[in-house]
Amino acid sequence: MKSMLASAPILAAALLLGTSAHAQDVSAGERSFNKCRACHQLGETAKTTIGPVLNGLFGRSSGSVEGYSYSPANKAAGLTWDDAVFADYIKDPKAKMPGTKMIFVGIKNEQEIKDLTAYLKQFDKDGKKL
């Protein structure tokens, strides 16, 4: 019994460390966003370029950024961007949305997707960090 009690703090610490390894890492997400930066912008000075701005992405409907010329597939997709939809999309955009004009090989790593999601979620619709 004493050995079980003595090992309880070690077990608790191991559980805490194990879960923190899977937490979202905003800094890693910012590095991951470098893959997106060629086409997308974020922040208060963001502008639509090759792709639409990604400010306020989560909760937004697909194909809805004013001033961006979306593909018919994107306009008709009827998606609302949330964690699950974004994760599915960013793995393989052309598979999730056949006919999209987004040319991107995708991000397959689940942790990288979570980190990127955490980074994107920092920006409200006006590009201000929350």
From TrEMBL:
Any one GO MF annotation of this record: electron transfer activity
Pfam families referenced in this protein's UniProt entry, alphabetically: Cytochrom_C (PF00034)
SUPFAM superfamilies: Cytochrome c
Keywords, sorted A to Z: Electron transport, Heme, Iron, Metal-binding, Signal, Transport
Gene3D superfamilies: Cytochrome c-like domain
Signal peptide: 1-23
InterPro entries per the UniProt record, alphabetical: Cyt_c-like_dom, Cyt_c-like_dom_sf, Cyt_c_1A/1B
Claim: Iron-sulfur is one of the keywords in the record: no
Record domain Cytochrome c: where: 24-124
Name under which the protein is recorded: Cytochrome C
Source organism phylogeny: Bacteria, Pseudomonadati, Pseudomonadota, Alphaproteobacteria, Hyphomicrobiales
